[in-house]
TrEMBL record:
Organism annotation: Alcanivorax borkumensis (strain ATCC 700651 / DSM 11573 / NCIMB 13689 / SK2)
Protein name stated in the entry: PNPLA domain-containing protein
InterPro entries recorded: Acyl_Trfase/lysoPLipase
Source domain of life: Bacteria
Length: 364
């Protein structure tokens, strides 16, 4: 494991917040956090927020987990799936740094169409993966699971009034019941054939299992990040039922799934809250199921850390609007956030190595 910077040089306030489910707390109090015990890693949707935890990702995948190689399942929606593709295609540190650089360099001028944004994202994915698709498919340590949604009804429209009405219906019905979004969206999980996923029964929404193959890995990654009205949905996805596939975060924003872990579900995340679906963000009463998340350890930037960042937050999609006409300023801000995130990784490694992580735990 690499040497960590002394966190106190940066600040006396903790950079990380640590929350855990009931079974995870009991396990960690007895054993501490051991890499060998981590068998599942979720990766949430969140767009540019991923840049703000890049240093934490690098510590987890570049230093911590490699100390105990073993088969692990990485379940990612939207940018979470892209983070995991960057990790599984080769050297984790190099891949994560490349993803951060490519994402930061993206520019979307005012008036750009969803089609053009989709083309630019496809080009970014091509530059990220290069010719390493097979490494993702055959990584001996990590099994990638890409989370998408399959659109139903008006949500299957590619834009305009029809899709807008579909979104309005989805948002409205979701206020009354999360299950109601099943009228508009279905879940699709794309992963290699083999052993069953370490998940309990998925009976909340219709769920499609699609075999991850060389001819669909890029299409699945694009679909997983296809935000309605921003990017076009993906059609003709090889091996999947016919339909229009979109951002996995619409249904599984923060991956509130029935994990069947034999140890610890390690969740490097953007926020200290697990929000089930994208449209649950403003619904403060709707959070992750404690039983589903009983084995989960949530590692996130602390409020003190966020307060010290430019604008007091992680990068997000609103920055494209706030910095419109000043792409150089936005890119400098995002690069600063990536650089600062190294402190998250350093503190994580320090807490693991000193055994002080247990002293910082709070229940989910």
């Amino acid at each position: 494991m690499r040497r960590y910077w002394v966190v106190s040089i940066h600040t006396s306030a903790p950079a990380l917040s640590l929350r855990a489910g009931s079974a995870a707390i009991a396990h960690l109090r007895e054993h501490g956090l051991r890499a060998a015990d981590v068998d599942i890693v979720p990766g949430a949707a969140g767009g540019p927020k991923a840049l703000g935890i890049n240093g934490l990702d690098q510590a987890v995948f570049g230093d911590f987990l490699p100390t105990a190689p073993r088969p692990r399942t990485l379940i990612g929606a939207s940018i979470g799936s892209w983070r995991f593709a960057a990790i599984t295609m080769g050297d984790a540190r190099e891949g994560l740094a490349r993803l951060a650089a490519l994402y930061t360099q993206q520019r979307f001028p005012k008036g750009i169409t969803a089609k053009e944004i989709s083309l630019r994202c496809a080009q970014m994915l091509s530059e990220l993966l290069q010719d390493r698709d097979q490494r993702i498919l055959h990584n001996p340590d990590y099994r990638l699971v890409i989370v998408m949604t399959r659109s139903r009804g008006l949500m299957a429209r590619q834009g305009g009034l029809g899709l807008g009405l579909g979104l309005a219906g989805l948002i409205g019905t979701n206020l009354f019941s999360r299950r109601a979004i099943g009228w508009f969206m279905e879940r699709a999980l794309v992963y290699p054939q083999g052993d069953a996923l370490p998940l309990g029964e998925l009976n909340d929404f219709t769920t499609h299992h699609v075999n991850l193959r060389a001819d669909n890995v890029r299409a699945a990654l694009l679909a997983s990040a296809a935000i309605p009205m921003v990017l076009d949905g993906v059609t003709g996805l090889p091996g999947a039922p016919d339909g229009v596939y979109r951002d996995g975060g619409l249904v599984d924003y923060h991956l509130d799934l029935p994990y069947q872990s034999e140890g610890i579900v390690l969740f490097p995340h953007f926020t200290d809250r697990v929000i089930p679906g994208w449209f649950d963000k403003p619904l403060r009463w709707r959070n992750g199921d404690p039983q589903r998340l009983r084995n989960l350890l949530l590692v996130t930037p602390s409020r003190d850390y966020l307060a010290r960042l430019p604008h007091g937050k992680l990068p997000d999609r609103t920055d494209f609007k706030q910095y419109r006409g000043n792409d150089a300023g936005r890119e400098a801000y995002w690069r600063k956030a990536v650089a600062e995130s190294q402190h998250l990784g350093d503190e994580f490694l320090e807490l693991v190595e000193t055994g002080k992580l247990v002293d910082r735990l709070h229940p989910l």
